[in-house]
Every structure is written in C-alpha cells, then in structure tokens.
Automatic annotation (TrEMBL):
This is NADH dehydrogenase. Keywords: FAD, Flavoprotein, NAD, Oxidoreductase. Pfam families: Pyr_redox_2. Belongs to the NADH dehydrogenase family. PANTHER family: NADH DEHYDROGENASE, TYPE II NADH:QUINONE OXIDOREDUCTASE. InterPro entries: FAD/NAD-bd_sf, FAD/NAD-binding_dom, NDH-2. It comes from Sphingomonas pseudosanguinis. Residues 14-336 form the FAD/NAD(P)-binding domain. Gene3D superfamilies: 3.50.50.100.
Length: 434
C-alpha cells in the first residue's frame, strides 16, 4: 500500500479533511487560503454538489452538470491537495487515513494508500436511516448522493414515458415527511409539468406520488401551521399524503404497512438521518444514537484531540439543551466557518471561543409552487413567511455557499450566467436527462 504524504521538505502542519461537502469543501478552501497549513481534502467523488439540491436533480428539474464543482479545480484555485477515493478507516495511533483505490469509469486511477495527518477533520455527512425496516436496502432508492440522484433521474424519465404510452400510472412512494421528502414530492410534480410542456400527454395524471410518514404531521421541525399548509398545498397538487403510517417492509410491490400496503413502482427512502458509514464505523470514538461523532464546543472529538468533526456527522448538544443540533446545511456551514477562523489558533495552543450556533430559522421549498420560512427564532411574531420570498431565501442559502467557494465577484457572474441561460435556452433538462 502507498504512503501518501506532503513532501518531506514541507514542515507545515498537515490538516486532512475527509468529506468535501457543504462543510468540508468550505473549510478546505478557507484553511488553504488564509493559513500556513498544508491542507488535504479526501472525497470519494470527483465533484462537489450542494446537497440540498439533490432532490431536484433526482426529479429532473435541475441539471447536475451546471452545479457540479470539480474538486481538482477548487484545490488548484485555493491551494489545497485533493485526494480522490473513499476513506475506509482511520488509524488513530499512526495518525493516518486509509483510502481505497480510486476507480473511474472502471479504471483504477489511484492505488489504495494511507494519508498521514497531524490534525484530522471528519466531514463525511449523513445518509437516510432505514430503522431496521426489511427490504429498504434491496428495494428502496436513496437520494443522499449525486450518483443516487442521477441514477434515480435516469430511471424515472423513461419509466414515466413508458407508463404514459401504456396508459397506466407510474406510482412513486416516498417514505419520510421531513424537508427532503416534502420537497422531493413537489419537485416530482414539477418535473411532470415540464414533461407535459414537451408533449408528454397527461404526464401529471400519469404520475402518482404518495408521501408517507410515521408521525402525525409532515415537517415536524416546522411550526404546525407550516405542516398543515404544506400538506394542503401538496394535496392540492395531487400528492397522496399519509401520516401515522407504519412501514414494516419494502418489496417489489411497494410498501408493506402494519395495516395494509401502498403499491409503488418506485420507492424512495427519505426517512431519518444517520452518520455516513465511515463515521459510524469509528466505534472507538464516542457516538450518539445516530452514529454521529460526539464533539465538544470547539468541534473537537470528545475522545481524541487530533480529531475534529463538523456537519451532519458531528453531534453537539449545546449547553442547556437536551438534544443535539439537527443535521442541516446551516449548521454545517457555520461549523466550517468557525473552524476556518479558529483552527489555526487552536493548533497554535491559543484559546479559541466556543462554537455558537445561530438559528436563522428553517426553510422549505415546494418546487416553484410555494415555499415556507420559519422565522420564529428571530422573534418575528407572525413567525412564518410564505411564497416567493421564502423560495428566494432558499436560493440565497445556495448563493452564500457559492460565495464562500468562489468569492463574491464570481458568484455575481454565476448568477447572471444562470439568469441568461435560463432566459435564452429552452428548458431542456427533461429532454436531455443530464
Ligand atoms: C435531498 C436533500 C435535501 C436537503 N435539503 C436541505 C435544505 O433545504 N436545507 C438544509 O439546511 N439542509 C438540507 N439537507 C441537509 C443538508 O444537505 C446537509 O445537512 C448538509 O449537506 C450537511 O453537510 P456536510 O458537509 O456535513 O455533509 P455533505 O454535504 O453530505 O458532504 C459529505 C461529503 O463527504 C463525502 N464522503 C462521505 N463518505 C466519505 C468517505 N468514506 N470517504 C470520502 N468522502 C466521503 C461525500 O462524498 C460528500 O462530499 C438536505 C439533504 C438532502 C439529502
């Protein structure tokens, strides 16, 4: 096995970040740009995508090509090293990360190797949780990664066309009534509307979407008024919403419930959250019930001072609260900003202020149909805004992320380019399927 390291003449402190998602890629750029640290970013993929877009990529309402950020380009631009391949394990005694071969289009491009670190930051994110339900792995689709979203989309469109031509419905069941499931249901309907515009007759009537949750309402993290409004909106669009439903198994026929069944041609599992497999496998580090790594108020592992964890794979319960912070892009972003700012001082043995989470409320977007923003945490009495403004807020989260990755001027140009492209080109996502 290869040893991969920063060159011997380079005496800089080696920070290795595993996971180039919302948190990890932001942090890699910040540390490489603004500090004298030698930064290496390991990711199993070749390009980063803003994960809150995956449901629209899966539905086919957004093309992934225009939003992918290649890691090599980002590394070159900001001055960090990109190491491609899935991290398999960590040797805490030797301070190395074991990275598997990197295979692209069936070819071995990089060998299995060990990458040495002085400080390790884990930012590997999360995946949906099957809760021990039988058949989830074998029969349900996930939309947790770009590949999964692209695969779903590639399968969805031909099936929709076949169903329309055969005069039958394409039945899709989504398990999980949180933000991912709710937003995905709306994007599917929007995709059907777009397909209708391309001459696919009755595309909306062909698509039969059922959204189920075991709880009493959708969007449990939002105020009840938002849950009720989102449900009414989805039902108005034609989605069958079923709450208080217990799924006991998933099979070729769809969902088996404790008191019946929901037939489906495609099942998407968007319920629950657990740490990504690498984080879960690190059992020598303290984890919470979801396998997320327990960190202190400086985002450092409670067990190992050389290891930090941020984003969805990290579990931090703020002082005075009972539950850990939720796995959201907002928190991943804030933790990346925090470590980018304070890690160099911490490594130099200086005192750093503790991480403080700022709650900017929650946003959910129902395609182009509607949106809700819960601003209660700001002390705004009415609490919730709805419609275009809320959808704009959702867009702004992404633009802020882009700004961190590319800089303010580049984001303005990207935004202008997006506007121009959408105004002069036909809406060809569904036709091209890319
Ligand atoms: C469909 C969907 C919609 C969402 N919508 C919203 C939303 O509207 N608002 C919101 O706040 N949050 C939303 N979320 C949640 C949000 O995306 C996450 O909270 C956020 O992405 C967490 O950031 P992260 O950096 O911790 O992980 P991620 O962004 O998931 O990044 C993890 C990275 O680690 C890499 N990785 C994983 N394992 C390995 C390994 N073994 N080796 C190497 N690399 C590895 C992955 O390739 C990935 O690049 C949504 C999530 C999904 C799935």
């Amino acid at each position: 096995m290869f040893e991969q390291d920063t060159p011997r003449h380079d005496a800089r402190h080696r920070v290795v970040i595993v996971g180039g998602g919302v948190a990890g890629l932001d942090l890699a750029g910040a540390l490489a740009r603004d500090t004298g640290l030698a930064v290496t970013l390991i990711d199993l993929a070749t390009a980063h995508v803003w994960k809150p877009m995956l449901h629209s990529i899966a539905a086919g309402t957004r093309a992934s090509a225009g939003v992918e950020v290649p890691y090599v380009a980002q590394a070159r631009r900001h001055g960090f090293t990109y190491a491609a391949g899935p991290a398999l394990d960590i040797d805490r005694a030797a301070r190395t990360v074991h990275v598997d071969r990197f295979v692209l289009h069936g070819r071995d491009l990089l060998p299995e190797r060990r990458i040495a670190y002085d400080t390790l930051v884990l930012a590997v994110g999360s995946v949906a949780a099957p809760f021990g339900v039988e058949g989830v792995e074998a029969h349900a689709r996930h939309i947790d990664t770009l590949i999964e979203a692209q695969n779903f989309q590639a399968d969805l469109l031909p099936r929709l066309v076949e169903a329309a031509h055969a005069g039958r419905q394409l039945r899709i069941a989504i398990v999980g009534g949180g933000a991912t499931g709710v937003q995905f249901a709306a994007e599917l309907l929007q995709m059907a509307d777009i397909a209708g515009g391309y001459g696919l007759n009755d595309s909306r009537a062909t698509l039969d979407v059922t959204l189920v949750d075991r709880g009493p309402r959708l969007l449990p993290a939002f105020p009840e008024t938002v849950s009720a409004a989102a449900r009414a909106r989805l039902e108005g669009l034609g989605v069958h919403v079923r709450t208080d439903v217990k799924v006991v198994a998933v099979d070729e026929q769809g969902l088996r419930l404790d008191d019946g069944a929901i037939p489906a041609d495609m099942t998407v599992w968007a319920a629950g959250v657990q740490a990504a497999p690498l984080a879960k496998s690190l059992t020598s580090l303290t984890q919470d019930q979801s396998g997320r790594l327990c960190i202190d108020r400086h985002c450092r592992s409670v067990d190992d001072p050389a290891i930090f964890a941020i984003g969805d794979c990290a579990s931090l319960t703020p002082q005075g609260e009972e539950r850990p912070l939720p796995p959201t892009a907002q928190i991943a972003y804030q933790q990346a900003v925090y470590l980018g700012r304070h890690l160099p001082a911490m490594l130099a043995g200086k005192e750093a202020p503790p991480f403080r989470h700022r709650d900017f409320g929650a946003l959910v977007k129902l395609g182009e149909y509607d949106g809700y923003a819960d601003l209660g945490k700001f002390g705004i009495s009415s609490g919730v805004i709805r419609g275009r403004l809320a959808r704009l807020g959702h867009e702004m989260l992404y633009r802020r992320h882009q700004m961190r990755l590319h800089g303010r001027a580049a984001v303005l140009r990207l935004w202008l380019a997006d506007r121009l492209t959408s105004s002069i080109r036909p809406d060809d996502r569904v036709a091209k399927g890319d």
